[in-house]
Amino acid sequence: MSRSWERMVQRNAKKVDKRRKKDGRPSLSAQAAHADKFLGRNYIFPILLILLMAFYVIMFAPWATDIKEDTTMFWVTLGCYALLALFYFMRRPYLTVTKDTLETRKFSGYKTLRPSEIRKIALSPGYVVIETVKGSNWVFSKFINRFPVGRMGDRLKEFAAVHRVELEVKEK
Q1: Are residues 26 and 48 in the same domain?
Q2: What pLDDT was estimated at residue 118?
Q3: How far apart are CA 100 and CA 113, in angstroms?
Q4: pLDDT, tens only, 64-73
Q5: Are 94 and 39 in contact (CB under 8 A)?
Q6: In this structure, what are the phi and psi dihedrals at residue 117, rounded to the nearest 5 degrees?
Q7: Residues 97-130: pLDDT tens digits?
Q8: Which domain holds residue 1?
Q9: Is 55 within a domain?
Q10: Inside any domain, residue 60
Q11: Residues 146-168: b if buried by 16+ CB within 10 A, e if exposed
Q12: Total count of domains within the chain
């Protein structure tokens, strides 16, 4: 489908959705927009922050009797490390596979890949690697971020087949 045709279809769908909304019926575009979102869990970085906090407590030893300084800033710093660890634990990494894009969040912000920007998708036990034409590769790991790589691999196989992206499946 050409882009002008897609834009025309989107405009008409918006009109139909407005009419359906006035009638109290569900919109068509909400049903048509299908995105698979695979969530992981970030636990390694929070554990490292907690270990860093323990290191600071052991090295500084705030319970020592010869310290005559105020330890308020020390405890504020440890509290900030604990909040940062909680923030990274709650901020779940994800991969969203839509009809024609792949989306994720990196340290520098939200990233989107179109099929023309993907060189290869490599599926191996425990890992999914999306090699990009420009920039760094996207790596999703079952061990590091607890991603459901089996389900991700199945969906990415469909995505690669539809958009003719090279797919490499590695076995043990």
Answers
A1: no
A2: 93
A3: 9
A4: 666 667 788 8
A5: yes
A6: -95, 5
A7: 988 889 998 888 889 999 999 999 999 999 999 9
A8: 1-33
A9: yes
A10: yes
A11: bbbbeebbeebeebbeeeebeee
A12: 2
